[in-house]
Amino acid sequence: MELLLLLTLFMVAVFLGVELITKVPPTLHTPLMSGSNAISGISLVGALLSAGSGAGLWVNVLGFIAVVLATINVVGGYMVTNRMLAMFKRK
Fold first, then answer.
1. How far is residue 81 from each of residues 42, 45, 63, measured CA to CA in Å?
2. Which residue has the higher pLDDT, 72 or 91?
3. pLDDT in the model for residue 29
4. Do residues 41 and 78 lie in contact, with contact meaning Cβ atoms separated by under 8 Å?
5. Quick one: which of 40, 45, 50, 33 has its CA closest to 70?
6. What is the widest separation between alpha-carbon atoms in the chain?
7. What is the pLDDT of residues 11-68, one digit of tens each?
């Protein structure tokens, strides 16, 4: 039953994420990148808690993979945001 609840929550999150990204006009992509960085930071904290929970080997392995992917997402998002903001600075 708990697995069904988690799968349902995951499907809703994927659906809302796709709807959010596809409905945003291109002029708002930079502010959206900052918002997605904040969400990725929150998921990074959850992944760290999961990886260090000691609930089992698979939980630790999947938590570690989630930490790596979320870290890549956060660092890449900040790099892209920084490049976009640099375009508007005076030389």
1. 18, 21, 27
2. 72
3. 66
4. no
5. 40
6. 59
7. 888 888 778 777 777 666 666 666 777 777 888 888 888 888 877 888 888 888 988 9
Separation between Cα atoms, residue 30 and residue 20, nearest integer Å: 14
- Residue 61 has φ and ψ, to the nearest 5°, of -65, -50
What is the C-alpha to C-alpha distance for residues 20 and 38, in angstroms, rounded to an integer?
15
Whether the model pTM is above 0.90: no
Those residues with Cβ within 8 angstroms of residue 32's Cβ, 6 or more apart along the chain or in another chain: 20, 21, 24
pLDDT of residue 87: 81
DSSP the chain: -HHHHHHHHHHHHHHHHHHHHHTS-GGGHHHHHHHHHHHHHHHHHHHHHHHTS-S-HHHHHHHHHHHHHHHHHHHHHHHHHHHHHHTTS--
Distance (Å, rounded) from C-alpha 8 to C-alpha 2? 10
